[in-house]
Amino acid sequence: MIPEWAWAGTVSAPGGISELGSVLDSEVVKVSTMSQNLPAAKLEAARKLVEEGNPVLPIVPGTKVPPKGFQLAESWKRTPAEAELKDWFLRDNMDLAMATGIHRAVVDVDGAKGEASLKELGGVPLTYQVKTRSDGRHYHFSGSPEELAKIPSRNGVRPGLDIKCRGGYVLVPPTPGYEPVTDPADLAPLAALQGRSLNLLFLHSLGVCGDPREDAPAVTLDFSQGHRDDTLYHTAVCLRRGGMARGDAEKLIEILAKSCSPPFPPREALKKIKSAYGQELPAERNLTAAVREWVLSTNGVFASTDVDKDLGLSTRVDKGTRSKILSRLAEDGLIERWGEKNGVFRRLEKNCNFIEWESADVKNTFPIYWPFELERFVTIYPKNVVVVAGDQNAGKTAFLLNVVQKNLVQYDGRIHYFSSEMGPEELRLRIDKFGLPDKFWRGARFWDRSTRFADVIVPDAINIIDFLEVSDKFYAAGGEIREIFDKLHKGIAIIAIQKAAGKELGRGAEFALEKPRLYLSMDHNRLKIMKAKNWATKGQNPNGMTFDFKLVEGCRFIQTGGSGT
Description:
This protein is an alpha/beta fold.
């Protein structure tokens, strides 16, 4: 997301038009509202971790999940390029996380319960520690890749204790809420992954409470006095995790209880079954939180396979648990099933703003000038969306640049043009055709952008999108336009989309027709108003009007006829 401070007049970049990355990298940028330039601090921390050989990944601020579409499973296998780091932590201001299991393992201690468990194990050596925003601590340890590859990440290895190693990740400073325990000048170095307490802790990660599908060394079960209680409970947990029916598990636990030395009381043994089968497992609790956070960070329609992809869920057990979680979220009214295909959901958006209609001024329009003087026929209001659908070489870009040129004087500095195709050289050639001095065009800002336009919308400005690429999932076009509409406040968005020659509607068809208040269709030498909700003159319906034209020198529209003459 391009942060609002980039538009707010607090950032000064020489030359007027500048790529966002250059603005953020410039030493002259001074933003008083950003304490110690947090994005730059995250970038520097990410660089250091990468230099040490630790993969890093972006996390949606305030959550513990990566942005939608991020290839989580690939994070441990590759080193991100410098350009990716800048995109994540400068441009999008994501939180910073480090993948574990390569050069580091982390003991995640959750509050007083976790500290008590750690104390029972004899504590851990002095090492680098991080306070977490959940009133917990992360203890970082070093190890060889070969050593760490044998240790899977595991939640709930002891009450309040999680292990983050192979396949895991943790948020790290300077992510808000994550701070080193001591002063940076006195930080303890990383301790090696060794010692009795750590061995016990990581054996719990590998042992009977673990996933039997993991390629882990065998651990001897201890049914002697003093250990019977834990062993029977962990065995019951494994039986439940493996899918054994409760009745069969009770029979097996009774047999094991009799085999203990001395024998374990049958009534007490059955309590282990009740405890294991009667409550959600720690791993399930953590997966529930992860899935819920993922859902809260997404918008619109999604498939259950999207959840699997982003959270790295690959086993049948994990996917089965994910299905149960999504069903519960649907019962709770957070999501609903969508369409006829199984596993497709839509997040329910229940937040809405009260419309102060009684104090609204109907004269408060958004005055804008158009080619063909369309303002004579159509009125535009704040928060309106306009779609310009055209086939290839119909003149969409020329039309949009004419909108820029005609409105630069009254909207100086408030026009933002997002181009998915033009580089600096082509844009230069296009602008030169108008024959106007460079300083005239500096009132508009041109940006290179091809996806997720809703993230960069400037709420109170003219936003021109050239163009919105629509995939074969045509319903997605309506969803993207709706997201753009939701980001508008007093500004407007003008969106170009492709259409097939001879068709009147662009890709997305009726899905893209729902939200716009003005929908224009462009063919070679003809423009047609397909939809106009707000008529400029009472009794003069502009719907269906046509404007025949010639495009001269790639920039000038000369009207030659049509019903709108």
